[in-house]
Amino acid sequence: MNQEITKLAGFTCAYTPLPLLAAAGFTPYRILPVGQAPDQAGSILHDNMCPHVKRVLDRALDDDLPGLDALVVINSCDAMRRLADAWPKARPAEPVMLLDLPYSADERAVNFLRQELLALAEKLAAGSGRLPSQEELHQSIATYNRLARLFDRLDARAAAGTLTGGRAGLQRWHQRSVTEPIDKILAELETFAADNDHPDKAAAGAPILLFGNVLAETEAFDLFEEAGARIVAEDLCTGSRQLTVLPENPAEDPYLILARGLLNRPPCARTIHAEPTGDLAEQVMRRAQETGARGVVAHVLKFCDPYLARLPAVHERLRKEGMPLLVLEGDCTMRSLGQQRTRIEAFVEMLQGEES
Amino acid sequence: MFYLGVDVGSLSCDAVLVDEQGQMVDWAVIPTGARNVESIAKVQRQILAKSGIPLQQVGATIATGYGRDRVEGRLASVTEITCHGRGIQAALAGTEVLVDIGGQDSKAMLLDGKGRVLDFAMNDKCAAGTGRFLEAMARTLEIELAQLGHLDKDAHGDLTLSSMCTVFAESEVVSLIAEGAAVPEIVRGLHRAIANRTRTLIKRVAPNLSGLAVAMSGGVARNPGVVRTLGQVLDCEISVPKEPDTIGALGAALIARDRSVKR
What we know:
Chain A has helices at 18-23, 51-61, 78-90, 107-128, 134-160, 166-177, 182-193, 218-226, 254-263, 279-291, 305-308, 311-320, 334-339, 341-351; strands spanning 7-11, 26-30, 70-75, 96-100, 206-212, 229-235, 295-301, 325-330. Chain A is built from 14 helices and eight strands. Helices cover 41% and strands 21% of the residues of chain B. Chain B has 263 residues and is an alpha/beta fold.
């Protein structure tokens, strides 16, 4: 791994090719939609716009970010595209690099994304002065795989309710893993993972599957656990979907590995295959059954059409199986989540069969 | 031994005492006001004085409502959704769909007919159609809140309110008054607006109400105009328990009793 990383590359989407950014001499820095930056994005973007994108822009306008040497935006939805358009108004000195993301994972799509990754590497190299060699990229993929495997192990312990700090603690690690240098976080996380299991306060909670898009705040996970829920599986853009183990094969083109790996990772509502239409519903139901969840919580941001359009089908599918669903609409503030407290507690009481 | 349920709502603070058999012994309702800790203490004092039961004979207290965590000495906090489900079972056994419209939120619950919640939907992000909304409208129309529910009985018009936001609806009502619309017609329009909004909430948990026993609780259930209009909109009969605003506290008291018996 490159020991001279001094440059920061901001990013906002879980589909960002982190191993490539690191190999090109950048520390990837996810601009999480957290913090207390005041609402200002409405001065550039429409008010009825994705709250994730608006919070990211709020942080930029409030200078609640370190200086970035590049911003890598995945063209994963219209809102992200608008963020790329708006960024120069907020931070004119920071170059924006847009990467197109296909929604399918067939060979044409993989080859297309490979070309996009090659183009991104060139753009990054223009900023850092280093175009990563194939060997460096392979090595970077292997390093990120170590991190992804560690998170898989910790996720299993959180699911069992034996991870020190519970889901909120794990979320803190997720946040750090995308905002701090990989070598530093890897060393610290390995030490943490070597710790023995401890029964956590959530161990006796009602098992739920939490899925959706953006839920970055650690306090949100505390809220679930305090309400008596145990998150046995989590499928969020700001959590488990941030990192996936990719194949390691030094004989293969690493750009192809990266492209194929990104497109074959667990999909979000934007990348899930459009046919059959109920695919997300099937995926959620299957995951809930596999993990022993007794209920499902969908946390979806306002105005996120890819998710909101699919929720009725998810609701119908789960209802057929007698699997309760709670839908929470968020706006990337804890203020909004605090309002959801009664819903979360009532849902947990319902799962526990409170008082007949 | 007796068991106490305290429902700390946004508009009213309600208390119910039940005995060992789960029978309601007494109830009390006072305005919550701006200092809910004082209101909680006051309603507890009031119900004990009213019933003549000393505090030492209260075996357990369950708190519910948005201010539930402010109740000192409680056995536990339980959400108002669970408490209303439990309470309505005692007041109107066999209820399968319950709509609770309180001071500043509304909820629809699908129940198993035995008081257990199977699904729920909740609107707590704005006061549209809630008790606070009706209070504001009554103030604008310069009539008593209690009058509101009866005024529209003989109204037949199809006047509608396009906005349910409390602030905008108030402006709309002012405009209607300026245009000379009769107060009963405006009240009918208000009730229809609330009923239509509530129908959307109910349909989220029970898309088909055919054959289901539907009931309403919460302070707004004291308004016969809203209940009547909601029944017309849903094309079903809506039962209302005797003291609809105490159902949450009743459920809480019964849960206090159940938990104490189990222990």
